Known about the structure:
This protein is an alpha+beta fold. The chain is built from six helices and eleven strands.
Amino acid sequence: MVTVHNGDRLHGALVADSGWPAMVSGLPADAAQLVADALVEADVKLPGASAPVPEVEAFAQAWTTNLGITPEPGFRQRVYELGTLVEPQGVRGEFRLADAGDTDILLRWRAAFLAEAVTYVPPEKEPEKVLAAQLAAGNVFGLWCVDGEPVSMAFSRLPEADMTRIGFVYTPPEQRGHGYAAGVAAGISRRAQQAGIKHVTLFTDDANPVSNRIYQRLGYRYVDSYLEVKFTGEPLRH
């Protein structure tokens, strides 16, 4: 993490996890050049950046100008926040929380989701440990089950600042078309609201009209657009 201060006040922050695009949503445009300069000086390598369009464009320009590389626009996402939950109707099955007995299916579906829905994923050498760490930290997986068999999955991140993010909504191809994704998304969202979490959010693929319609029907309201920018090419400066 890199932070920028104006006197004693926090002015902005950049968060980067090894191998993942940097999150620059908390970095104002007027601080982009300062942070980019500091990262280049420290020889930090970034594969890309992600944030609302104004912030990511400002940082991408500063970063790529410094290194003489090309910013490549990538994955566009929409951010939604849940208002009043609207339960889906006519979906066969029921929601339950995942438990230790579901580890194998969570590992398979988590890997399938990352391969299908995420544009850039650093290799996970030990996915079992990654999943165990997610659960130990208080994150939750939920399952939609038909006749006791899981058919769809969703994830709720440990809340911070009264906000949680829903993700890993995945249905195997052979189970799609029955509304199971809507069922599991509603179930995990309902659980979050019943726990008193004020802000229940999720990200969608801007290019996928089906998922966007599903979440809007559940009561999710559009908040903002995010853009992922990739940094490609060999840097001219080292």
